Structure formats: C-alpha cells, structure tokens
C-alpha cells in the first residue's frame, strides 16, 4: 500500500489521523489500530467494494446492527453482480462472505465485518 493510498484513506475519513509521538512535536505514529484498518480496507477492496461502500461499513453510526450491515452488503453484492457478472471470482468471494452473516445482534457480532477484519490465509 502506498503512502498516497494511506493519505487518500485518511482524507476520505476511512482512517484516523496518526497520533503525535510523546515528547516529539513533529513526529507522528501509526498504531496497530491503523494497520488493522488498512488491512480491513484492503480486504474490502479485494471483495469489490468501493471506497464509498467501505466508508459506510466503517461508520458505526450509519450501520448500527448486524442486520444493517447485512442489508447494506446485499445491496452492494447485487450491484457487483450487475457490474461484473455472477461468475466473477470477486463476486463469488463476497457472496460467500455475506452468506456467513447471521443477521442478528449488534454490529460487533456481524460476521461480514469480522470476515473483513481477520487475516485470510
């Protein structure tokens, strides 16, 4: 991932700004939470999601329950199917991820978000 990509994600509010290092006014540091979010963004993009869609997924105010995430993901899946076709490997991978969702519980319980947050492979 390039520096330009990281700046773009920060500018689009997908990634929180880095924190100042203690005792150093000009030094900034990215923390593990930033690395985790960058991995989430990368995985979401590999599933065919746009930056706007990823912005919705990371916005806890926009999608507050697992069912909210599921409904949003199914709309994204339908758009991907129309754009790329149902046999596209990206569509199939996202379809499998959406199928893991139980559609109940809080946002933190959502298998779609968990699947995008964890290391694959």
What can you see in these coordinates?
With 121 residues, the chain is mainly alpha-helical. It has one domain. It contains six helices and two strands. The chain has a two-stranded antiparallel sheet. The chain starts with a helix and ends with a helix.
Task: Provide a compact summary of the structure.
The protein is mostly helical and 121 residues long. The chain has one domain.
What would the keywords be for this entry?
6 helices; 121 residues; mainly alpha; two-stranded antiparallel ribbon; single chain; globular
Mean pLDDT: 90
Distance between the termini: 19 Å
Classify the secondary structure makeup into a structural class. Answer: mainly alpha
Low-pLDDT runs of 5+ residues are: none
Share of helix, binned: 55-70%
Q: In what range is the share of β-strand residues?
A: under 5%
Radius of gyration: 16 Å
Number of helices: 6
Quaternary organisation = single chain
Q: How many distinct beta strands?
A: 2
Task: Name the strands of the widest sheet in spatial order.
Answer: 1-2
| Main sheet attributes: strand count, strand direction, barrel closure | 2 strands, antiparallel
Overall tally of structural domains: 1
Order of helices and strands: HEEHHHHH
Shape: globular
Would you spell out the secondary-structure blueprint of this structure?
Layout: H1 3-11, E1 19-20, E2 28-29, H2 32-46, H3 51-58, H4 66-84, H5 89-99, H6 111-117
Antiparallel strand pairs: 1-2
Helix pairs in contact: 4-5
């Amino acid at each position: 991932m390039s520096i330009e990509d990281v700046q773009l994600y920060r500018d689009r509010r997908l990634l929180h700004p880095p924190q100042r290092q203690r005792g150093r006014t000009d030094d900034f540091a990215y923390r593990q939470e930033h690395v985790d979010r960058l991995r989430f963004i990368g995985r979401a993009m590999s599933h065919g999601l746009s930056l706007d869609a990823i912005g919705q997924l990371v916005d806890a105010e926009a999608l507050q329950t697992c069912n909210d995430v599921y409904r949003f993901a199914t709309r994204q899946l339908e758009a991907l199917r129309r754009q790329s076709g149902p046999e596209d490997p990206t569509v199939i991978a996202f379809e499998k991820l959406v199928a893991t969702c139980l559609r109940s519980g809080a946002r933190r319980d959502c298998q779609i978000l968990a699947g995008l947050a964890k290391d694959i492979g």
